[in-house]
Amino acid sequence: MKNNIATSIFESLSSGVRLDVYRLLVKKGKEGMVAGEIGTTLDVPPTNLSFHLKTLTHTGLLTVEQEGRFQRYRANLPLMIDLIAFLTEACCGGNPAECGDFSPQSLCPQCIEPPSEKN
Fold first, then answer.
1. 39 burial class (0-12, 13-18, 19+ CB within 10 angstroms)?
2. How far apart are CA 69 and CA 12, in angstroms?
3. Is the pLDDT of residue 102 over 50?
4. What average pLDDT does range 41-53 have in this prediction?
5. Are 111 and 104 contacting, i.e. CB atoms less than 8 angstroms apart?
6. HSE-up of 24 (CA within 13 Å, CB side)?
7. Backbone angles phi, psi at 91, to 5 degrees
8. 87 FRET partner, CA 20 to 30 A, in 8, 38, 80, 96?
């Protein structure tokens, strides 16, 4: 990960609303939530929420999938794991094994998609 990408991610999380949205979607996992459910849960008006969802989606922290007339949002956990790895790559003087296992498989095994089989 490059510094400018990490900075962009941190900037997008600097809003309390966006941080709440991201944390809520982390809790929901792969199920995610549609925009209306997010707004109702967090008591955020639709126009305000739309702005925040667009920002989080633009930085890659959220993925969005069209479901009929609804949009389902999910936290992009692999990106967050990459950010954590970026922040901790020089852990313990460049010996991250001394600090613990920060590998994606260790941090969030269910976030890692199994490799697809090619026919």
1. buried
2. 26
3. yes
4. 93
5. yes
6. 20
7. -55, 140
8. 38
Residue percentage of the chain with pLDDT more than 90: 58
Structure-token match 């990490």, residue found:
6
> Which pair of tokens denotes residue 99?
């600090």
Closest CA to 76 of 92, 66, 64: 64
59 and 71 share a domain?
yes
Q: Which two tokens stand for residue 18?
A: 């966006």
| pTM attached to this predicted model | 0.78
Residue 93 has pLDDT above 50, yes or no: yes
The tally of domains found in the chain comes to 2
What is the Cα–Cα distance from 58 to 45, expressed in whole angstroms? 20
pLDDT in tens, 79-88: 998 888 888 8
CA distances from 59 to 3, 6, 93, 97 (A): 13, 10, 30, 30
61-74: per-residue pLDDT in tens?
999 999 899 999 99
Element (H, E) at 71: strand 70-75
Q: Is the same domain home to 68 and 89? A: no
